[in-house]
Design brief:
Keywords: Hydrolase
Largest sheet: 6 strands, parallel
InterPro entries: HAD-like_hydrolase_sf (IPR050155), HAD-like_sf (IPR036412), HAD-SF_hydro_IA (IPR006439), HAD_2 (IPR041492), HAD_sf (IPR023214), PGP-like_dom2 (IPR023198)
Helix content: 40-55%
Pfam families: HAD_2
Number of domains: 2
CATH topology of the largest domain: Rossmann fold
Strand order of the largest sheet: 3-2-1-4-5-6
Structural class: alpha/beta
Protein name: HAD-IA family hydrolase
CATH superfamily of the largest domain: HAD superfamily/HAD-like
Order of helices and strands: EHHHHHEHEHEHEHEH
GO molecular function: phosphoglycolate phosphatase activity
Number of strands: 6
Length: 228
């Protein structure tokens, strides 16, 4: 699916930066569970699962502010800390489920074999991203990892700017791949091509409206588009 009136841009990018949750892995169950536990700890109404999923991609404070708009800064910090604790507890208990989307490992391997440089830009923490990538045995495929621990929340372009610097790539040599409008807007702000995926948390129409040049319906479609 290409954006109306926008021709697909040919050529293989030098740097391909992926979002994590909703793009590389299906972490919605873990996110919804941890957020529900965090809100319950303070006797707050649990946000609807759909609203929680739509907040994925933002940094945790930004996500919580959207889910609890009446909370002050101290309450937001408390909920964020409770979320992190719930997530760590699930990880320690072996209950954390963040499966790779089927075919993603093969796609990443094909991109590296084709000479592409890979990176990640995510609202996860450093620790969370490291655990996720190590669990799936794919950490070695990425040369730059940018997280919410060191940057403003998406759609601020800081993560992509840091990824470009780390990879020695110019904006026109890079592409951002993600499942939310936040990813697409970040790419636009950084002057980087934006490609959406339809298996995540925002609708394809939202991704195109936010600046995606193309939205892949499947991982096979994404591979064909990137390596054509």
């Amino acid at each position: 699916m290409t954006a109306a009136g926008t021709p697909a841009r040919p050529g293989e990018p030098r740097l391909i930066v992926f979002d994590c949750d909703g793009t590389l892995v299906d972490g919605q169950g873990a996110v919804v569970s941890a957020m529900g536990a965090a809100f319950a700890q303070f006797a707050l109404p649990t946000p609807e699962a759909g609203l929680i999923r739509r907040s994925v991609g933002l940094s945790l404070p930004q996500a919580v502010r959207r889910l609890a708009p009446d909370s002050d800064d101290e309450a937001v910090r408390d909920i964020v800390d409770a979320y992190k604790s719930a997530f760590r507890a699930a990880r320690a208990a072996g209950e954390l489920s963040e499966p790779l989307f089927a075919g993603m490992a093969e796609l990443l391997g094909a991109l590296v074999a084709a000479g592409c440089t890979l990176g990640v830009a995510t609202g996860k923490s450093d620790r969370g991203l490291e655990h996720c990538l190590d669990t799936h045995g794919i950490a070695h495929l990425f040369v730059t990892l940018q997280t919410a621990d060191r940057h403003p929340s998406k759609p601020h372009p800081a993560m992509l700017e840091a990824a470009l610097a780390a990879a020695g790539a110019r904006p026109e040599q890079a592409v951002m791949i993600g499942d939310t409008a936040y990813d697409m807007l970040m790419a636009v702000e950084a002057g980087v091509r934006a490609i959406g995926v339809a298996w995540g948390y925002h609708e394809p129409e939202e991704l195109i409206e936010a600046g995606a040049e193309y939205v892949a319906a499947t991982i096979d479609e994404l591979r064909t588009y990137l390596l054509r």
